[in-house]
Amino acid sequence: MKKIFPLILVLVAIVFASCDMVNEDNRYIYVKPKPIGRAVLIEDFTGQKCPNCPKAHEEIEKLQAQYGANNVIAVAIHSGPLAIFPIRNIIGLRTKLGDEYYKAFGVSVEPTGMVDRRGGILNYPSWAGAVNTELQRTAPVGIKLSISYDNTTRKATVDVDASGVENVAGKLQLWIVEDGIKCRQDMPDGTVKPDYVQNNVLRAAVNGTWGTDISVKEGETVKQSFTTDISEKWNADKVAIVAFIYNDGGGVLQVVRKSII
């Protein structure tokens, strides 16, 4: 044992000496983030007085069945002259927010929409091809949502983690959407369905009409937090947050959706 102990000390000294010989700049090797899959955003401009709009809703359902609802995320923007504002005894889904988007993007007919805000306003039969093209691309940024909801105050806190696969600068947009709203809808056969189920309905923007600035570097995670009110007119069990990052050059870079409950 007396002979072995000094030998151990010598070996330990050699190991530490070897470590000291490695330049500090070479001790940590940067690993580039792995590519991540892209989800696709369909902004569906629609209205309750639009008889062909249910066909566009069916197209969204087909795409979600084909690719998965987490990969094809739709938001129904009730807007324009074919939409109905809520009035006494009538459930209307048109909003001033939706009308602002309707005008800003130059929508003239419904049903039409945008797929990742690339390629302009498209008729709904063209959505399938655009969605397929977008899903082939990887996302330069990842988004993770954590949501806590207080049923007493009806306030939701939304924490956003944005992780850069590449350097990204643009806008972070958070929308409140609601499913399962039963109300009137003009149908393709010329009838009016009084209890048509409307899904993906845009209710409000959490962080302004055009979102808030965000910049994420490659390999970095940026955190942002928002608090928003959930109206008593909305069914909290059917409410979700849609969050996406976009910029003028690349359109929508990534999108996620998460229920508040």
Automatic annotation (TrEMBL):
**One of the Pfam families matching this protein, by short name:** Omp28
Endpoints of the signal sequence: 1-17
Q: Which UniProt keywords apply?
A: Signal
| NCBIfam families reported for this sequence | lipoprot_Omp28
Know the name of this protein? Outer membrane protein Omp28
Organism whose genome encodes this protein: Prevotella micans F0438
